[in-house]
Design brief:
5 helices, Rossmann fold, 7-stranded mixed beta sheet
Length: 220
């Protein structure tokens, strides 16, 4: 398909590890102002669709076993109308906490899948997850206060939610994570793209990488 076609409604959920360095959230915070222009400008992307509406949501995750606020979720914000509100949610959020190497990234991913996605015939439901750590296995016994209800019990169950409950044509998952468990097991997930983080998130400009990826592969 050549050229520009149709008007898509695009929702993006950013799942950001808040236990490591400041790079990921700073990338998102600094890149958000110009993101809609880059994302929606069809002259910058190959075989791109026109975007009628773009919304963003944030899930900032840590570790339920160690952190007082292990999971912070925002609502969806419409860009550009609610850009200031989106930036206000991110303002003052800096990495801290985390008691061991593994974090609750899979819970964040599960919550992202359950987002109040836009329901349009032409839509894209995009999840972007950024972490420099392995993830705690789902289904581990936990008596932590505030642990989300109705979490999937295993990585395989999470995979089934992605494959069976997310709309096939709409869903896209971009993961910036180490080549470690469970991220190396994403290879068979539909419409999923894993960028390996070798050392830490300072190695990747998430917003630029996302735009470059879309530009090169037209996966929107």
């Amino acid at each position: 398909m050549d050229g520009i076609s149709s008007n898509y409604h695009v929702d993006i959920v950013f799942c950001i590890d808040m236990t490591g360095n400041v790079s990921a959230i700073e990338d998102v915070r600094s890149g958000l102002r110009g993101f809609k222009q880059s994302f929606c400008d069809p002259t910058l992307l190959h075989n791109f669709h026109e975007v009628a509406a773009l919304r963003v949501r944030f899930i900032l995750f840590k570790d339920y076993s160690f952190d007082k606020e292990p999971m912070l979720e925002s609502r969806f914000f419409t860009l550009d109308d609610e850009l200031d509100e989106a930036l206000a949610f991110l303002d003052g959020r800096y990495p801290s906490g985390g008691g061991d190497l593994h974090e609750n990234a899979l819970e964040a991913l599960a919550l992202a899948m359950k987002s109040d996605w836009v329901e349009k015939e032409l839509s894209r439901h995009i999840i972007i997850l950024a972490t420099d750590a392995p993830a705690k296995p789902l289904g581990e016994p936990t008596d932590c206060t505030g642990y989300p209800e109705n979490m999937p019990k295993s990585f395989d169950e999470l995979h089934k939610i992605w494959e069976n409950e997310m709309k096939r044509k709409a869903k896209r998952l971009f993961v910036f994570a180490p080549e470690a468990e469970p991220w190396c097991n994403l290879v068979n997930w539909t419409n999923t793209f894993h960028t390996v983080v070798k050392d830490n998130l300072y190695d990747v400009d998430i917003m630029k990488a996302l735009i470059d990826f879309l530009r090169c592969f037209s996966v929107i």
